[in-house]
Amino acid sequence: MSDRSQAAMLRAVAGVGTEPDARVRVGIVLPHPLVRLGIGRVLETDHRFLLVRAVAASTPDDLKAWRADVLLCTSGLAAELGPDFIAVAVVVGEAPLSSGSGQAVDWYAEPAELIRVLLRAAGRQPTSLAAAASGALSRREAEALRWIALGLTHRQAGRQMGLTEETINTYVKRIRSKLDAHNKAELTRRAIELGYMAYEEAS
Fold first, then answer.
1. pLDDT for 69
2. Residue numbers of the domain that contains 32
3. Closest alpha carbon to 20 in 182, 188, 168, 190
4. What is the per-residue pLDDT across 18-65, written as a single tens digit (0 to 9) for each?
5. Are 113 and 23 in the same domain?
6. Whole-number Å distance between alpha carbons of 41 and 22
7. DSSP characters over 64-129
8. Each residue of 38-50: pLDDT tens digit?
């Protein structure tokens, strides 16, 4: 395990993860501008990440200066990088990597999967949030979360649930605290990650 991996693991074990300097620093080296932009947008909605740079090409020497915890790159670059880097290859139907870190995310992956892969690569525990939240939300909080994630205002969600807007405000404050979500975009993403939206569609 590289020194960077050990440092990331120690931060995760120590419970560090919500302070700005504890964010996972991500660098992107991918030739496709729209892919770089899309991944950048996903990372911007999650306070656990800091996008340090996104370029079409770079050299290992330049990449070291970025001080990124994780690099998202092509499988070719991931194979070239040495043990000083934690690289996640963005692949399209390719076989698993035979060298390097061996970590990859499919080109067509959902944003939640990208987040899980990046957290895992950085030595964080991406499943801890889901495990903690699965029993943490009450039935009514989960219902409020689904309505809010579907785009309803607090007042509209209250009408759907037969509750006042103030009660929904209270639920949302509790939910944000429990899921460590700082804005509506994060709240919606967490609802999708934890399967609350799938439950709504199935019912």
1. 92
2. 3-124
3. 182
4. 344 578 999 999 999 999 999 999 898 888 899 999 999 998 889 999
5. yes
6. 20
7. HHHT-SEEEE-HHHHHHS-TT--EEEEESSPPPPSSTT-EEEETT--HHHHHHHHHHHTT--HHHH
8. 999 989 888 889 9
What is the per-residue pLDDT for 50?
92
Q: Are residues 103 and 144 in the same domain?
A: no
Bridge-based pairing state of the strands 103-106 and 87-91: parallel
Instruction: Please list, in sequence order, all residues whose beta carbon lies within 8 angstroms of the beta carbon of residue 110, skipping any fewer than 6 positions away.
Output: 192
**Based on the domain organization, do 154 and 96 belong to the same domain?**
no
pLDDT digits (tens, 9 = 90+) for 123-136: 875 544 444 444 46
pTM recorded for the entire structure = 0.55
Burial of 6-44, coded b for 16+ CB within 10 Å and e otherwise, reads eebeebbeeeebeeeebbbbbbbbbeeeeebeebeebbe
**Residue 149 is encoded by which pair of tokens?**
């994630």
Residue with tokens 């996104």: 54
Q: Say whether 19 sits in a helix, a strand or coil.
A: coil
- Computed over every residue of the chain, the mean pLDDT equals 78
Tokens encoding 132: 């903690």
